[in-house]
Amino acid sequence: MINWRDYFQVKNKCIFSSHVHLVPGLENTFTYVNDGKERERLVILFLDSSGVAVGGEPIILELPGGAVMKLDARAELMKHGIKEFDGSFLVLVSNVDQNRPFDISTKDHVTRWQGAEMATEIVTAGHLNMNVPSQLSKKAFFMFCSSVISSSDTTTRVTLFNHSTESDYTDTATVIPELHNLHGESLAGKPAVMPAFGSAIIDVDEWFGDAGKLLLAKTGGRGTLSVAHLGHTIGSLFFHMDRPTKAFKCGQHTQPVIPAVFFQPGYNYWAEWIGAHVPFAGQVIPALSWLKHNRSAIRMFYPHHSNYVPSLGAYFRQSRFVVWGRMMLRALYFLIKRKFKIDEMNFSGRNEHNEYVIQHNLWNSMKLFQFSRGRVEALLYPLLSIPGVKKDGKTLCIGPKNEGEMLLLEAHGFRDVIGIDLFTYTPKILLMDMHEMQFPNDTFDTIMSGAVIRYAYDVERAVKEMIRVATDGALMIVSFGLFPPEEELEFCKSPLYGGVKELLNLFGGTVDHVYWWNEGLVPGKKSKICSVIFRLKKK
Amino acid sequence: MTQGKNASPFFLQKLIPRNKKPLLPIYRNLLSMGSIGYYLHTEDGWRTRVYIYNHFALLNDAPFQAAWEARFFTRAGDVAARRTGTFVNPETVILETADIPGLDQYGIISVHIKDAKTDRMLHELYSSVFFTEFFVPGTKKSIMAHCLSGSPKASHCGMDHMSTSWTTPAGFRPTLYLGNSCRFQSFFHPACGHAAVTFINHRGEKKTIQLKPLPQLGCQKVDLFGQFPEIEPHVGSGPYSMHVLGKNILHKPFMTQTNGTVVLGEHL
Q1: Could you say which residues from 58 to 77 on chain A have a Cβ atom under 8 Å away from some Cβ of chain B?
Q2: CA distances from A452 to A361, A401, A420, A456, A509 (A)
């Protein structure tokens, strides 16, 4: 028989903890949805307060993407002849394919305790790393429940879990709960000792006895329970429990006191204050904020010192001011001519993914006038150094968003540059989906796709289209970013986690010679920029 | 500076002499509204208790003076009421909306707890953590909610929040509360909180509802099945996910569900 701890040895995983409270007349259910695409394995444990799993073995489930786990504690515990139970519930979630990245950012777990007259539910988030033995010394835990009540019909229950994501976790955690009445008078309770994977269930009246009742009685039966502890992270929930039925009226997870996220001695927060107190600042601040987040817009006012300048004329043509100025003037011209109408591909609800892409790029991020010149140049200069690059051939830019990328290519001598995107304001950019381009076969000598390919809902299909419209011997330039799960856009989760190698696998045997292969971390960030330039072989 | 026998070295590291960081109190007093949550004070009897606790006093296990300020906003984002006080010990204050005149039927509430009048202060700011309890007096209907751990701020950027594993039991009606996190002057600044909520049912099908724009620090109540009848058959009894896509929406929205007798409620 496999020890259930062995299942915790996987790498890409998280755990969810909750409280099991099963009494006659009360239902206790747990719901989890695999909202990703990867197949997940769930290792589900009902643990008693000493950390022993009910039945000795976990429940193992495998959930494909989109599938639901809904577990009824009564049905599961009845299999072991248990009718009443107070303990903890622990779910280990991991990818079946451990080579796939694990995304915790949108994972929730809902526990519901429902009686005939009362019910409560609590959403808990997962923990990626909890009570890792090698990191224990750095961890501090501090929680409080400020809604303690002790009345004739209601009492308060606080549950603490000493759970871990690690299989070799063996620490017993001992904490001393402290009870305060509204005036701040305090009473230390007996220690709560929790073995590894065990829990403590603190019914305030019972735990603190008559002394606790007296303390709370001074302030109408109300008070706060707090726990401060160094060395372990303890999960905790609290409930108001109906005395006669033992059903939960309401409950919530306690919030550890965490360093606030709102303090950054920078622009935004002064802007917040100015915006809140100065009339008209509401118009100015968003504009300044836009400039702050789009510094490239400011940098474009001075000429750029290109590292590939064949002549003085080229220097001016390629300078930031000229390229950016041309782009903005042309945009202004076309927008006025079109009465500020921007054409968008109309999917009429048939392709929600692409509609999100349009919404994100065109409206949420306002990329119509953002030109990330540095990002294009990072590919352009290696491209220009390749012998035989066909500047007089046809060049395709996939997803340029505006004319900036194409004008820069033209400034570097590319004669016939055309772009495709899901929205456009200019004849230089055709309305077209990269999954089904309207060009004939073997059309383009150079194809550039800068930070676009991961917007595809079907990367394989987009790659096939690129191969189809490229000539034999065409140069392919592709770049894309890989971000930590918390920074990924919801709709931008297509594969390519394997980086350039995975992309080249999709191109398969058509990859002839790879001139440039780069996978670099962005300084100061966890994200990675991948780029590749290679020649295509079709025959 | 005193420290008690149970003071944790980890927390004491956060306490520094006040004169070392002269600008910190200015940041704190001018720029932060503390933390934020929702309140209900409805005609059908819902009331709210706000639990504010001097968690600073536990950091060094000794008296630690703190000041608190609670502000209640109307659904249009105007300040409806304001309450202040001070703490020395690990005291708790309970505010009841029934005792506060001038409140709207629902809205957002901010609570700011800040250290005061001690020779030492917190090196890093700590959230003003508080809890709210929504209840109907004389009944067993009660919902506990935590605050949102952060001052509202106008990001003027997109919000993309996904919450999964929701179920609406048969006969229950869900109500969603959303707030605008922008606190800019409303003078010539249009209602800037926008949200579209997509419901993804257990079959993976999607339905999106577009909500009305919210004014600054305003709050909106959405009777999901009443205002958008197509949602009820769409989500059915199976688990569903909610994807909130918008701008300046307070993270997180809050949802209550009731069949008239039993109530449920939780943040998305």
Answers
A1: 66, 68, 70
A2: 11, 10, 11, 7, 23
